[in-house]
Design goal:
The protein is mainly β. It has a 22-stranded antiparallel β-barrel. The protein has a five-stranded mixed sheet with strand order 3-10-11-6-7. It has a four-stranded antiparallel sheet with strand order 34-35-38-39, with no helix packed on it. β38 and β39 form a beta hairpin.
Length: about 700
């Protein structure tokens, strides 16, 4: 592998190189993606004031991705964080967790049992109906409200077809590490979708997907293992997800109507690591494990109306969403392979009634484009808490906000645009909030583009941060109902160069620099250490600052597509509660990625490889003496795939391998009071795995 000095030379060379061939602006625009996220009206990436990154359906298919986590694993500045205890996979973006990054489906935030649009479980977002994914970095509080501090991810689904009938069935088999069989090992995915265009106006589609993950065994022995050596169960627990959706759309003249419904059901199994022995008058002596199942259910309804009346454009959405988590605890009798003492109860839920809408109008021959919008959110959250004395406490709270915002895009010339905007949010649980931003874009000669923006956004405390209360055996993990919303100021600037030659050659170089400053940051801080057992609570105490430098390059040349990028982030977070504190030093995090795709048009075949490098990173951790710096070892992630289409593209075959470098655990080191370093295993993945995906497309045109 090349050293970091050579890598930097290549990055800056690609950024600065200028091609000698004659360039054509019309060609740049023709190759641009049309984006809708953070736009007053759909427009090309070239004209967008904000930097928008687009992940196409073709890219998703080449990866053999099943859910959102499979895709984002390869993107720079994004880290997917798995939780082996709950099965969740959440995202960290620019060093900040999922509470600061908003996930939307067709511009509607996606509910989870602890929030709305944030802290989304990526493993529960399937991609079978996705047309593309748009990622917008930076403060997005003006247009997208609370918790869009570092940016948004908008999943755009398919809403029309040029063919009367499209029917597709997909079967995907995947190993988990080296483990695979048809019964109880590996990953097994089936999906079906059918759509019909009745005429030019009406379109309907239905689809379903089943994803069975059989768990990563590694050196564990499964649920029927009865020894007391801590190897019972699985390294990562099994789960099974079923998702179904239906869509109806109507288009005529300047009016569009869309209704979409989705249902998700997931079961997650967790097994006690160690078997215990007990004697019963009924069963005699037997070995058992105290096991648990989690059940997730989500309902998603979305009604959208958009179009044009006279010179006014309008877009209104109404949504009802509900997600709940139920927990079933039971004793599993290993010798008899039987469950007893089953107790099932709802532990978390979030019910949301939501509406957002806007009207926009252009003035002075489109020199001014003005948008006025609103957002209404009614959340009803529920949580079952572990309280003192091994008692349970039910908490049900309403968290509402009613927002109005305005954005003005001023095209001072063909080259120069400004975009100021502001939002006011009435909150029923917190003090009222506001957000503002100012963005600008300037196009230079020879297809150089400069963008800059500054803005202030806010993050409201999550339901978990407000109401968590878990007290057991001396441990105390406490929420705080008196938390204040965070305020975050972001600034960013970028320089982009597009170079063209021949008929199908294009190189895009981008250099971006950003800054984040968050006040009153919410953190789960160490309050006391009683005989080695921690007492922690969420409080507004820490300050967070980060600087980020990003370099990205994308080359398209005939049958080749090559990407190369790198980012350097300096992060400072200060925690001080008088007794335990950290200093304000800046900790460095490095990311790099590259991707290569080659298409053999004659054979309708493409070969792709994606590599991501995560450099050594540092983080503050709690210890028996207070806060210490933990060092996470560097690691890499390499995926490859081959996609072949047969019989006039009716059959698609994708073969591939994930995590070819076999990354499972990464060393997390921290220094003890005596100066010795201890190593913990930080779980990243389940090792090298292989997949085969077969899709049959029946397209009927008459």
């Amino acid at each position: 592998m090349m050293n970091s000095r050579n890598s930097l030379k290549i990055l800056f060379y690609l950024l600065s190189c200028t091609l000698w061939a004659q360039e054509d602006l019309k060609k740049v625009i023709a190759l641009d993606s049309v984006v809708v996220s953070a736009q007053i009206e759909p427009q090309s990436v070239h004209k967008s004031v904000k930097n928008v990154q687009v992940i196409s359906k073709a890219q998703i298919q080449k990866m053999g991705a099943v859910n959102l986590a499979d895709v984002l694993n390869q993107y720079i500045n994004i880290t997917v964080r798995p939780d082996i205890n709950t099965g969740k996979q959440t995202v960290s973006f620019l060093g900040l967790g999922g509470n600061y990054f908003k996930v939307l489906v067709d511009n509607i935030p996606l509910v989870s049992e602890n929030g709305f649009g944030n802290n989304t479980d990526l493993s529960q977002v399937n991609l079978e109906d996705v047309e593309r994914i748009e990622i917008v970095e930076g403060a997005m509080g003006v247009t997208h409200g609370a918790n869009a501090v570092t940016g948004i991810l908008n999943i755009i689904t398919k809403k029309k077809s040029r063919l009367p009938w499209e029917i597709g069935y997909t079967l995907q088999e995947e190993s988990i590490g080296q483990e695979y069989n048809f019964l109880n090992k590996g990953r097994h995915i089936q999906s079906f979708k059918a759509s019909h265009s009745f005429n030019d106006n009406w379109y309907v589609s239905v689809g379903t997907q089943r994803n069975k993950y059989s768990g990563f065994w590694s050196d564990y022995k499964g649920k029927n293992y009865s020894r007391t050596d801590g190897r019972r169960g699985y390294r990562t627990s099994p789960f099974e997800t079923l998702q179904s959706n239906a869509l109806l759309s109507y288009r005529k003249d300047r009016f569009n109507l869309l209704y979409k419904a989705e249902y998700m059901n997931e079961r997650f199994d967790f097994y006690d690591r160690t078997a215990e022995f007990v004697f019963s008058p009924i069963y005699g002596g037997y070995r058992f494990g105290n096991d648990r199942r989690d059940f997730y259910q989500r309902y998603f309804h979305h009604l959208n109306l958009n179009g044009q009346y006279s010179q006014w454009f309008y877009n209104f959405s109404f949504s009802y969403q509900y997600q709940k988590r139920e927990e079933e605890n039971f004793r599993y009798m290993i010798d008899f392979q039987k469950e007893i003492n089953n107790q099932k109860r709802k532990t978390h839920s979030m019910k949301v009634f939501y509406s957002t809408g806007s009207v926009s109008h252009s003035f002075a021959n489109k020199k001014y484009n003005w948008q006025l919008g609103y957002e209404l959110t009614h959340n009803i959250g529920f949580s079952l808490l572990n309280d003192e004395g091994q008692t349970l406490k039910k908490v049900e709270k309403e968290i509402d906000n009613y927002d109005i915002y305005s954005v003005l895009e001023v095209n001072l010339s063909e080259r120069f645009s400004l975009r100021p905007g502001g939002r006011f949010s009435y909150q029923n649980l917190f003090r009222n909030q506001y957000a503002y931003s100012l963005g600008s874009r300037y196009s230079f000669d020879n297809h150089w583009e400069w963008r800059a923006s500054v803005g202030e956004s806010y993050r409201t405390p999550s339901f978990e941060e407000l109401y968590t209360r878990s007290i057991f055996m001396g441990h105390a993990f406490l929420g705080n109902e008196n938390l204040l919303p965070e305020r975050g100021i972001s600034a960013e600037t970028s320089l982009k160069k597009t170079s063209l030659w021949d008929e199908d050659g294009m190189l895009v170089n981008n250099l971006g620099i950003s800054f984040n400053n968050i006040k009153d940051k919410i953190h789960n801080v160490l309050l006391d250490m009683n005989n080695g057992t921690p007492h922690t609570q969420y409080i507004n105490i820490s300050r967070y600052q980060s600087y980020n430098c990003l370099i990205s390059n994308n080359l398209k040349l005939s049958q080749w597509e090559i990407t190369l990028g790198g980012s350097f982030a300096w992060i400072s977070q200060k925690i001080d509660n008088q007794r335990y504190r950290t200093d304000d030093r800046y900790l460095l995090n490095i990311n790099a990625n590259t991707g290569v795709s080659y298409t053999i048009k004659k054979w309708d075949t493409s070969i792709s490889a994606y590599y991501k490098f995560i450099g050594k990173s540092q983080m503050w951790q709690m210890s028996s003496t207070g806060y210490v710096i933990g060092d996470l070892d560097p690691y890499g992630w390499l995926d490859i795939s081959l996609q072949k289409k047969f019989f006039n593209r009716k059959i698609e075959l994708t073969l591939g391998a994930r995590n070819l470098l076999n990354t499972i655990d990464v060393g997390l080191y921290r220094q003890t009071l005596s100066g010795e370093k201890t190593r913990l295993n930080y779980p990243i993945g389940y090792g090298r795995s292989y997949f085969l995906k077969l899709t049959y497309n029946l397209n009927i045109n008459y």
